[in-house]
Write a structure and sequence with these properties.
Elements (H helix, E strand, L loop, with lengths): L21 E2 L3 E6 L4 E5 L3 E8 L2 E7 L22 E4 L3 E5 L4 E5 L4 E6 L2 E13 L5 E6 L6 E3 L13 E4 L17 E2 L2 E4 L6 E5 L5 E4 L6 E6 L4 E7 L3 H12 L13 E2 L7 H13 L6 E4 L20 H10 L3 E6 L3 E2 L5 H8 L13 E4 L2 E4 L6 H10 L1 H4 L5 E4 L18 E4 L2 E4 H4 L3 H16 L6 E4 L2 E2 L7 E3 L7 H16 L5 E2 L1 E2 L8 H11 L6 E2 L15 H16 L1 H14 L4 E2 L1 H4 L13 E3 L3 E3 L9 E6 L3 E4 L5 E3 L2 E6 L7 E4 L2 E6 L11 E6 L5 E8 L13 E8 L5 E5 L8 E6 L11
Parallel strand pairs: 14-30, 20-21, 20-34, 21-22, 22-26, 26-29, 29-31, 31-32, 33-34, 44-48
Antiparallel strand pairs: 1-10, 2-3, 3-4, 4-5, 5-19, 6-7, 7-8, 8-9, 9-10, 10-11, 11-18, 12-15, 13-17, 15-16, 16-19, 17-18, 23-25, 24-25, 27-28, 35-36, 36-37, 37-42, 38-41, 39-40, 39-42, 43-44, 45-46, 46-47
Helix pairs in contact: 5-8, 10-11
């Protein structure tokens, strides 16, 4: 508790000794097999090879031989490229044709050139280490070069000038710019420079830190253990870097369509009657709804894989009835298993040695919601299968999605987590929790996702996780944890989700209205407006806050919130198409403007606008009482979604937006598929095509369709319609996939206004 008082800045702490950073020295020997270069250093060993023409693996172990196997995060390190090595007195140079890697011998460092221009360079002290076995990787960076990515971090979009550390942490206290360690650890940064951005994935599961503050012209990357295991991505633009990163760590799979609808949650709806009342109210007010969540109070004493049969006496019937109303139910499942010898899950885990324990075999217990609890060792494949099989309890009821929380793992003690001396069994080896901590949530997501997939034949599961590591996108959607009903948290959620997208996580969102504290009608409206255009769309609130369902604040708020939930479904054909594209390419659904306009310096620092795909720009209102804002529109012609008024890009515009209006702009050249009004994603939508011509009087668009739930689309059982149109001519449609388009097209709407001659506005 003293750390929250002035004791935290006690003068006695100023001169604490710092660990001395030692260099690995120089190259002592090397071997080259035509594809991979490895060798010994004054201290340790190194390995270098290109996976493809734009991705280089650079591995240095100051303490022994380098580990050549990949971590769980990596699925795309399966090959190596041929090159030609030459040696002189000072360096080893490998010419790959597409790039040249130069290893300077003394001091040991790395330079990569493309077309004779340096695109990546380490500092003169390339790799260092300390007596505590911390490792350092030092990379040159121009002082004005923006840095993006790094997963789920508070603050603005550009992380240059910051120290960003990664240690999955349950943070209930209000998040702010100084709340660096949150629930996700994704040690991947994009150093942006037009036409030559570089991605650095520092694949190290220990606590890591990206220091972009101490040195003006470099980034120092530290791991509190392990080795320097870096993947260097040399892209042509940010989008290219993200594509290559997701080639390496995996793409977000196409989710079931129902998971993209509106989700309603609270900590907690404490009885089946309350759940029914909530769903009945959505039906009463004709508000679209796809899913309702069950937080921890549905369980028997917070025991996972149980129901409290006093509060939920007919839970099987409840779930069946809701499914008949086209409402899915997603229950929470935490990792903590209550210590109770009469509880079958606990007894089974003890009997089969499925729980985390110390090296002497003593089981680790920590306190969480059920009280004293044991924690499954998810890094053990046998435990993953056991945990996955347990989900039959839910899937037999008709449940198709699971919400994993508290999986940092969170423990109610001073460290907020498991003892770092606990051991895990990963791939047949023992590792400490200090090494495995950041992996824990990812491995739980693997167990959950694979368990659901196994239980539900040819059905896409929905998995939502709070904690994770690089590669988590292959298994789970992510929400940004315990935010607050603060305007600052609404604003902060936008760059968090954009940076998650640039870190491979395409399916993410924040709790609409704020989880903790009390929301207000205005804040709920503005937050719903934003959430309607983010990948994941859920309203969620804490037990001691006021309720924040759409109807709580009266008719006016109800109608405005309902309007934007309906707009979410109106944009569903476009949104679903973007998710399909994301699985194919790795490009996120929601993007910062700099991703689409990487050479426009005006976009580099924009944190309060975002792109939905490449064709829709959203510029939300983020302050109470505000009804106007400055909006930067990049080069081109842009249409106001509400009025069709045209604006010239490459400049700022003052835009009016009353409480019922979210500024939305459609890029000229777009054919936007919009759906008819429905109450859920299971209802069939008709589609209208809205045409926004560019300055060349042309427009194009896509529409992807499938059955919304199965994996048949991976066998080309889908329809992909490509639309093109020139002004004054007929629409041209080309069809792809094995399915015929099943959509009824209501109409083609041409966006035209009085300033249709593309004049200045």
């Amino acid at each position: 508790m003293l750390e929250t008082t002035s004791y935290a800045i006690s003068p006695s702490k100023v001169n604490e000794p710092k660990l001395v950073n030692h260099s690995v020295g120089s190259i002592q020997s090397f071997e080259w097999d035509g594809e991979k270069l490895n060798g010994t250093l004054s201290k340790g060993t190194f390995l270098l090879y290109f996976i493809n023409e734009k991705t280089l693996r650079f591995h240095v172990n100051p303490f022994g031989d380098p580990k050549t196997e990949s971590s769980v995060a990596v699925v795309g390190d399966s090959g190596s490229m041929e090159g030609e090595l030459t040696e002189d007195e000072v360096s080893l140079s490998i010419d790959y044709g597409f790039a040249k890697a130069i290893m300077n011998k003394n001091p040991f460092n790395l330079v990569v050139k493309r077309d004779e221009e340096v695109v990546f360079e380490t500092s003169s002290t390339c790799v260092g280490y300390t007596s505590e076995k911390h490792v350092f990787f030092n990379v040159k960076k121009e002082s004005d070069r923006p840095v993006y990515g790094l997963g789920e971090k508070s603050g603005f979009l550009d992380k240059s000038g910051s120290k960003i550390s990664n240690w999955n942490t349950d943070v209930y206290a209000p998040h702010n710019k100084d709340t660096v360690e949150l629930y996700q650890s994704i040690p991947f940064a994009i150093l942006h420079r037009p036409k030559m951005p570089v991605g650095i994935f520092f694949d190290n599961s220990y606590r890591t830190e990206f220091d972009m503050q101490t040195y003006q012209n470099s980034v120092s990357i530290m791991g509190e253990g392990g080795e320097v295991n870096a993947y260097i991505i040399l892209g042509t633009d940010i989008k290219d870097v993200v594509k290559l990163y997701t080639d390496l760590t995996g793409n977000t799979p196409l989710p079931p369509k129902w998971s993209l609808g509106y989700h309603q949650s609270r900590y907690s709806y404490t009885s089946q009657d309350e759940v029914k009342q909530v769903v009945d109210s959505f039906k009463k007010y004709e508000i679209p709804l796809d899913c309702v969540f069950l937080d921890i109070h549905y369980m028997d004493g917070y025991r996972v894989f149980t129901f409290d049969e006093e509060q939920f006496p007919e839970y099987e019937k409840l779930i069946q009835e809701l499914r008949e109303q086209q409402v899915d139910v997603v229950p929470i499942v935490d990792p903590g298993v209550k210590k109770d010898v009469e509880y079958p899950i606990y007894r089974d885990g003890i009997t089969n040695d499925y729980f985390c324990n110390y090296i002497d075999g003593t089981i680790y217990h920590g306190e969480v919601w059920p009280g004293e609890s044991a924690f499954p060792d998810f890094m053990n494949e046998n435990v993953q299968r056991w945990w996955g099989d347990l989900h039959a309890f839910y899937t037999k009821l008709g449940i198709r999605g699971i919400w994993n929380d508290m999986n940092e793992p969170s423990v109610f003690n001073d460290t907020k987590t498991m003892d770092v001396n606990v051991m895990h069994r990963m791939n047949g080896e023992l590792i400490s929790h200090r090494e495995g901590h950041n992996f824990y949530g990812l491995y739980m997501s693997i167990a959950t996702f694979n368990g659901l997939k196994e239980q539900m034949e040819n059905t896409r599961p929905f998995s939502l996780t709070r904690a994770g590591y690089a590669g988590v996108q292959r298994y789970s959607a992510v929400w940004t944890g315990d935010n607050r009903s603060h305007w600052e948290h609404l604003e902060m959620s936008i760059p968090m989700i954009m940076n998650l997208g640039m870190s491979g996580v395409a399916f993410s969102g924040a709790d609409i209205g704020g989880f903790s504290s009390d929301t207000t009608p205005e804040l709920l409206i503005r937050w719903t407006q934003v959430g309607a255009f983010l990948p994941y769309f859920r309203n969620h609130s804490v037990q001691d806050s006021i309720y924040q369902e759409p109807w709580v604040f009266g008719e006016s708020t109800l109608q405005s919130v309902k309007k934007y939930i309906e707009i979410r479904y109106q944009f569903m054909p476009y949104l679903y198409t973007l998710f399909y594209e994301s699985e194919q390419t790795g490009v996120p659904v929601v993007r910062p403007l700099v991703m689409e306009y990487p050479e426009d310096e005006n976009t580099f620092q924009i944190s309060d606008e975002f792109m939905l795909g490449s064709q829709v720009l959203v510029a939300p209102i983020l302050r109470p009482g505000q009804t106007h804002r400055s909006v930067y529109l990049p080069q081109g012609v842009w249409y106001d979604f509400w009025t069709n008024e045209q604006y010239l890009g490459g400049q700022h515009h003052l835009i009016s937006a009353d409480l019922d209006t979210l500024p939305i702009f459609i890029k000229g050249g777009t054919i936007l598929p919009l759906g008819s009004q429905v109450q859920n994603t299971k209802e069939k939508q008709s589609v209208s095509l809205h045409v926004y011509f560019d300055e060349n009087r042309q427009a194009s668009g896509l529409l992807y369709e499938d059955d919304g739930i199965s994996y048949d689309y991976r066998e080309e059982h889908y329809s992909l319609s490509t639309f093109t149109m020139k002004k004054g001519e007929k629409l041209i449609t080309k069809q792809g996939g094995l399915l015929e388009a099943d959509t009824t097209f209501d109409q083609i709407v041409i966006a035209e206004t009085n300033n249709d001659e593309m004049g200045e506005s």
